[in-house]
Amino acid sequence: MAAATFSEVLPTGPAHDGNDQGFWDGLRAGALCLPRCAACGTWRTVGRPLCADCWSFDSTWEPVRAAGTVFSWARSQRQLMSELDVAVPYVSIVVALDDVPVRLLGLLVGTDQAPRIGDRVVGEIQRPANAEWPVLRWRPEVAA
Hints:
Elements: H1 6-9, H2 21-28, E1 32-37, E2 59-64, E3 67-76, E4 90-97, E5 103-108, E6 120-126, E7 135-140
Parallel strand pairs: 5-7
Antiparallel strand pairs: 1-2, 3-4, 3-6, 4-5, 6-7
Domain ChsH2 C-terminal OB-fold: 61-121
Organism: Nocardioides daeguensis
Protein name: OB-fold domain-containing protein
């Protein structure tokens, strides 16, 4: 029996429970979409089926601007998932979005410099060669 590859074990795309389907459908359509409680309007973390404020399961998926600041980061020296389609070492960052009170994890691309907490970043939807679904990557914001 052949050993499983990382892409077979940890593929990109929606979870089996469907709680993050709107996020992935949004990326396919070229937008960052996040869940918002249909009952009280509270923004949710992707994959969370229940509103933390009112406990409603009803949600909508709304497009948001993919821009924010680096909240945290880590450099990885080992390739963990083949569908990441990036060379090691790579930097994962947690981004505090500007327009909604949500933080998202993603890869930082387009720079060899280590990020600093508070650095401005913008999201970019990419389609890795060996992934079925597009992914959201982050780049340093270029001053206008």
